[in-house]
Amino acid sequence: MILIIFLYVYSICLSIFFGSSIFIGYFTAPYVFKTIKSRDEAGNMVGHLLHKFSILGYITLPIMIISGYMIYINKYSNIFITLGPFIILILIIFSENFISKRMGILKKQMISITVTPKEDSRRKEFNYLHKWSVKLFLVNELLCLPLFYIIFIR
C-alpha cells in the first residue's frame, strides 16, 4: 500500500513538472513573443515564468527524489528513478543561479537587447548564455521521458 502512495506522489510530481515545462517552452513562450510587441518585455515575461518554473522544480523534484528512493528500495532495481530528478534539480540550480543571473546582469548593462549592436560583447555573451539555457531546459525535459517509462511502462 505504501509503495502505491509513493508511486502516485512520484507520478503526480513528474507529470506536473514535465507538463509545466512543455506548456511554458512550447506554448506560452512562443505565444508571448508573438503577441507582445516589445522583445524586451516579452523576454522579461518569459524569464519571470521560467523563474516560477524553477521554483516549481525546487518543490516537486525533492519530493520525487524522496519518493523515488522509497520506490527504489521497495520494488524497482533502477536507481535512475532517484538519480533522474536529482540530475534535473542540479541542472535547474545551475541554470537559475549562474546562467540566468549572468543574463540578468547583462540585460541591465545593455538596457535593451534589441538596440544593443550584435557585435557588442555583452550581447554575444547574452546570446551564448541563452543558447545554453535553452539546451539545459531541453535536457531537463528529455530526462523526464525515461522516468515516465520506468514508472508507467516498466
Automatic annotation (TrEMBL):
GO cellular component term of the entry, any: membrane
Keywords: Membrane, Transmembrane, Transmembrane helix
Pfam families assigned: DUF4149
Repeat listed as a keyword: no
Record keyword Membrane present: yes
Cleavable signal peptide: none
Membrane spanning stretches: 6-33, 53-73, 79-99, 132-152
InterPro entries per UniProt: TMEM205-like
Cellular compartments annotated: Membrane
Domain TMEM205-like: 13-109
Name used for this protein in its record: DUF4149 domain-containing protein
Organism: Candidatus Acididesulfobacter diazotrophicus
